Amino acid sequence: MTRIEYRLHAFDLASRRGFADGNMFGHLLREKLGKFAPDKRAVLVECVKRYLMPAIPRRLITTLSRTHNPIRIADTETVDDVEDITVAIPEDLVLKVAAELSSMQKP
């Protein structure tokens, strides 16, 4: 069985087109959850908050965006000293986050 991992890179926090232009989990969510998938951008933001941000040894101020990459560092921030930090997230953890977000959206 193939174990798929997604890599979140700190340098993507500084890019308008980072995290595959905000579409990092789009294919996975469509393939595995279909019409029941939560917003791919919300899943990306939550995964960055849960897994990438704790791996960065200093606090970064992030902002949310409605275009392209949905989570970026504030204009006053830089990732020059931490840009090489990467975390690998197994597919099953991404799907777990998606399931949690889906359950919170239901009435």
Order of helices and strands: EHHHEEEH
Helix content: 25-40%
Content-based structural category? alpha+beta
Q: Can you summarize the main beta sheet?
A: 2 strands, antiparallel
Shape: globular
Strand order of the largest sheet: 1-4
Strand content: 5-15%
Q: Radius of gyration in whole Å, from Cα?
A: 14 Å
Low-confidence stretches: none
What is the first-to-last residue Cα distance? Answer: 36 Å
Tell me how many strands there are: 4
* Mean pLDDT rating: 93
Tally of DSSP helical segments: 4
Task: Give a short overview.
The chain has 107 residues and is an alpha+beta fold.
Architecture overview:
This protein has four helices and four strands, in the order E-H-H-H-E-E-E-H. The model has no long low-confidence stretch (mean pLDDT 93). It is globular and about 40 Å long. Strands 1-4 form a two-stranded antiparallel ribbon. A two-stranded antiparallel sheet has the order 2-3. It has 107 residues and is α+β, with helices and mostly antiparallel strands. Helix 3 crosses helix 4.
